[in-house]
């Protein structure tokens, strides 16, 4: 079936080894192409090269004078990629830092303590049943962040009925969260301290952060303040956990925010590099990228 726009349509699967290109030509003709995902001696980017080859073979004039692929010939591009998956498995994502509440710096390192026998001092994994094991043999998953900043701010839920801290609590600000629950604001954001810490972090070479605060799913204000300060300082990527995954449990919310801060800049660089191979950097065509992680 011919395309209504009279232009080419591309669906691409960029895997770790091979890249498969499916193209529908304006006249309805179907083209299929398979390339190595990495072949630097012949091309910089496999999806770009696949599109170029199809356009060149079908039109005879696929590139402009600068060697960029003519995007005016293309209606849309849809691509699935393992770029994020590979970066995660190979630990080649963006160097990033975790920003969390004071005393919470080891929270994601500890995790949720899920293991078959939580009180066992001699943990035996299934694949090690016949092997003498001790704590040195157990490998916990590595965290994605390289540094941690602790912020001395905190909110806690307001309990119904009388509280032992009632006299102290009367001095605390009460706010209503997005869930309708009431919270006490024990400590507000120390803005200057946060700014100083983030400046030092930026100077150390970190350009991406994940902000993960307790109860931010219902009270995002503190994360938003830290995000604003980080943006003013010039961080390239800021993942706020209440935006990335607004859920109650801080551990999975923190893991997700860290993954976003670790992988998103890496994927963005790939997309920018992919777009740079086309005329006008694909400004008229917004490729739809599916990240497989």
From TrEMBL:
One of its GO terms (cellular component) is cytosol. InterPro entries: Hydant_A_N (IPR008040), Oxoprolinase-like (IPR045079). Residues 10-234 form the Hydantoinase/oxoprolinase N-terminal domain. GO terms for molecular function: 5-oxoprolinase (ATP-hydrolyzing) activity. One of its GO terms (biological process) is glutathione metabolic process. PANTHER family: 5-OXOPROLINASE (PTHR11365:SF2), 5-OXOPROLINASE RELATED (PTHR11365). This is Hydantoinase/oxoprolinase N-terminal region. It comes from Popillia japonica (Japanese beetle).
